[in-house]
Amino acid sequence: MLHRRLLISALTLIAACALLFYDLGADPLHSWDEAVYAESAKEMVQDGDWLTPHWNHEKFLQKPPLFIWSTALSFKLFGVSETSARAMSALAGVGCVVLTLLIVRLFAAEFTAVIAALILLATPSFYLNARYAMTDVMLTFFMLLTIYAYLRTTENTKWWLLVGVSCGLAVMTKGAGAIPLFVGLLIVIAWKDRAAFRRRDLWLGVGLCLVVAGTWHLTMLVLHGRPFVSDYFSSQVVSRTLRLMDSPEGQYGAFYYIPIVVLGFFPACLLLPLSIPSWLKERRLPIILPLFAATMLILYSLASTKHQWYMIPVFPIFAIIAAPLRKQSLPVYLILIAIGILFSLTNGPSKQTLAIAELSHRASMDAGPLGFYPGFNYGPEILFYSNRQLCANAPEHSMGQLAKCSKPEYAIVAKADILPNSTELARSGDFVYCRVSY
Predict the structure, then answer these.
(1) Which of 40, 161, 355, 416 is 20 to 30 Å from the Cα of 214, by its Cα?
(2) How many domains does the chain have?
(3) How far apart are CA 254 and CA 297, in angstroms?
(4) Which range marks the domain in which residue 131 is found?
(5) H-only helix segments in 109-158
C-alpha cells in the first residue's frame, strides 16, 4: 500500500512538473506584477541588498519579500531569464498539486485524491498563473500546507508547529492576502475544536507564526519607519481594501468574482453537479475546506480592489469538491480534464507584450532614463528588458512615485502619441522607440 502511494505521488509530481515547467520561458515577461517582481529580484542580485527590496532602484516597500527572495535566488543560481523568473511560481504550482493529493488522502480514497490533483492541474486559471512570476500560487501553496497540517493535528498536536510556520510564510508571501486563511482557521477552531485553544502546541505555532512573519516587518519598521508604514500598511492594506487601486475590475462590484471563479474553473465546473451530492451524502469533506473557500470569496468580494488572480487559492478546494467518490463517471472526468489541459496550453502572450519586449531589448543598447507614454501600463516590462531607469508620469498609480524623473531623452510610445520632430529608432507593432523632441 505504501509503495503504491509513493508511486502515485511520484507520477503526480512528474506530471505536474512536465506541464508547469514545459517551455516556461518561451514568452516575455508581461506587465504588471510579473515584470515588477522579476525586476525587483534582479536589482536585489545586482545591488546586493537582500533585506530591503528595490524597484527602479528606489525602495520598494509595498510588498513582503519572500517571493522576491526566491526569485532572486533563482537568478543567482541559474542567471536572469524568463524561466528563472517563473521557476518559483511553477515550483509552488507543483507543490499545490501534490498537496491537493495529500489532503484528499486524509479523508477519501486514492482514486479521488488523484482525480482531484489532475483537476487542479487542468484548471486553466491555476495553470496559467502557476506559469507567471507572481505571488498568488506561492500564497496558495502555503495556504494548502496550513490546511494539510491543521487536518493532521487530530492525530498529533505537533502539526500545530507547521501550521504556525506555514501561516507566517503565507504572510511573508503576500501580506494581507493571507487574512482569509487566519479568519477561516479561527472560525473552524472556535466552531469545531475549541479544545485546541488549550493546547500548548497551538500557542507554540502562534509564536512561530509571529517570528516568521514579524521579524522582517519589524526590521523594516526600525530601518524605514514612517515610509514603511505609509507604503506597506496605509497604501497597500488599507487603501486596497477601502478604495480602488490600480484595479479597473473593482468597478464591477461585489459580484465580480462569481463569473471569474466559474470561467477560471471551466470545464471542471461542469463536474460539480456530479460530485456535490455524493460529498453531502457521505459527509466526508472536512469543514475547513468549503469554509476557507467561502471566506476567500466573501472577504475579497467586500474589498474594493479586485483582480482575477486573487481567487487562485479557491481552485484547489473546488478541485477537491469536484472529484468523484466513485468510479462510475471516470470517462467524463478524464475527458474534461483533457479539455482543460488543452485549453490551458493554447494561451499565449499578447501582441503588445511581444512588441514592448522587442523595443525594450533595442533600448538596452542606449543609456539614460527611458520614458513610456501614455500611462504606466507597460512600464515594468520596459524596465526589466531595457535595464534603464524608468521615467513615467503616473501619479495616479500606486508605484508612480518610484518612476518620477525629468523629461527623458528616449521613450517608447504608442505610434499615435509620438511627439512631432522626434526621431524614430525602432518600431514594433503599435509602438515606437524614439529620441524625444519636446
Answers:
(1) 40
(2) 2
(3) 10
(4) 2-345
(5) 110-121, 124-130, 136-152
